[in-house]
Fold this sequence. Notes:
Layout: E1 5-9, H1 15-27, E2 38-44, E3 50-57, E4 60-66, H2 75-89, E5 95-99, H3 104-108, E6 113-118, E7 121-126, H4 129-140, E8 146-151, H5 158-168, E9 173-178, H6 188-198, E10 205-208, H7 222-225, H8 232-251, E11 255-259, H9 265-277, E12 284-288, H10 296-304, H11 308-312, H12 320-337, H13 358-376, H14 387-412, H15 419-439, H16 444-455, H17 465-472, H18 478-483, H19 487-499, H20 506-515, H21 521-544, H22 548-561, H23 566-579, H24 584-588
Parallel strand pairs: 4-5, 8-9, 8-11, 9-10, 11-12
Antiparallel strand pairs: 1-2, 2-3, 3-4, 5-7, 6-7
Helix pairs in contact: 4-8, 8-9, 12-13, 12-15, 12-23, 13-14, 13-15, 14-15, 15-16, 15-23, 17-21, 19-20, 19-23, 20-21, 20-23
Amino acid sequence: xxxxxxxxxxxxxxxxxxxxxxxxxxxxxxxxxxxxxxxxxxxxxxxxxxxxxxxxxxxxxxxxxxxxxxxxxxxxxxxxxxxxxxxxxxxxxxxxxxxxxxxxxxxxxxxxxxxxxxxxxxxxxxxxxxxxxxxxxxxxxxxxxxxxxxxxxxxxxxxxxxxxxxxxxxxxxxxxxxxxxxxxxxxxxxxxxxxxxxxxxxxxxxxxxxxxxxxxxxxxxxxxxxxxxxxxxxxxxxxxxxxxxxxxxxxxxxxxxxxxxxxxxxxxxxxxxxxxxxxxxxxxxxxxxxxxxxxxxxxxxxxxxxxxxxxxxxxxxxxxxxxxxxxxxxxxxxxxxxxxxxxxxxxxxxxxxxxxxxxxxxxxxxxxxxxxxxxxxxxxxxxxxxxxxxxxxxxxxxxxxxxxxxxxxxxxxxxxxxxxxxxxxxxxxxxxxxxxxxxxxxxxxxxxxxxxxxxxxxxxxxxxxxxxxxxxxxxxxxxxxxxxxxxxxxxxxxxxxxxxxxxxxxxxxxxxxxxxxxxxxxxxxxxxxxxxxxxxxxxxxxxxxxxxxxxxxxxxxxxxxxxxxxxxxxxxxxxxxxxxxxxxxxxxxxxxxxxx
Length: 596
């Protein structure tokens, strides 16, 4: 019988296929989960009608459905086995299923066991995932009156710090479980590190590893969409059921602390149901008033608006390196996303590059992020440093930069996607962090002086394309420009970027403006001095009579002529980063700096 049928993956990224799955699920009284990253369906050979289907969201099977007219054919077992194999192939040893209570016996027959239940849904698991996590929690358990906070901290703010401090005063031991789901602006490892560093002075606080069993895409996917649907209460109840039957008893806690939630309707709903459910199982909920109305969403809004100083006023100093790293990678991503660009990789094409593309560049940017954090965490620069201290400082920064470059090259197969950005943005991040540590704000005159002092420690490179260009042509390279604290950036590019902030093509025009002025060593290396000067004229011409069509035409010409203004791209990212560090008045009032 089964020879008549086949199981095939359905590519959800294809609009018509997505719609087909959505219609199939709707006909079976199910709703399409947008977070699905894999879907497979049973088809009769030679036919495109979905007879049965099921999807995966990470390690969780969802959206299982079988058409009524083939319900007796036994497709469910084959489909679930296929999905388990696919999840195993993706590295998931423990597989879960989110399904209706009526399907419990079916999945029990396939080796799943119940781990959480609500009136309208159940969560089951095939594997040892929950048992392993509970064993981990049991090892952390200590005697006493203990409490717990489940926290996302995206990023870790003064409000989160206040919540933990106030809760810690009320218990012998406070456990902080970090939400592990990777759907936040700041990665799990970053959020966990921020919480650990922001609470290291609290001796009775233990920061725990997160899991798929507490506020995750498995138990509570609506949380990450920040919307209330008819499924929200079911998801909250499943999450709380896991907490009261597994997490709380294995951790040995009797109190769950939460912060008051005056603005987020979803979190407020979670807190309300928690206050109703936990006492039924012998647990207590304690709500602590929010500190000065500070929220992570406000911090993210300030960062995305380019207001670093405002964001730092809402976060502890231990979080600042992560904010700087975020802004640095955001600047690189904004440059990459600017489309179209002449001769450069963007969303539409690879420009004049045959060895790199958009996905590679995007991946490379994220690889650099933890190294920007490390650079921001180095000791602050001090003009009174001894020569030995300066040497140790330089060695530390160089070590991080080399590690970042090695990680980039390892991922890209030896392709230099961001070497220039590692130096320029890395230096800017290091200088900004140093100024923040000493002055508690970013003063541009102090920032530029620090950049100059740090850059003067670096020896001239001898084995790069830029070094070869400097030796052959009378132009300044990346190091010389940094040793002068990028004078063109502050006198021309940054004011231009700010003055065109409301223009839909602000970044395109700023890139052209940079190209019209910069002695781009990447162009000199590829095509020589004559082409480098021609690029400046081309940029002026397109900028004077700007149109997307003209930009596309210039891109096509540069692709044919192998011209890539990579140095200008790096300077656009650097300009965007520095724009986010301080307000316009501070920059315009910045004194002229001597460069000798």
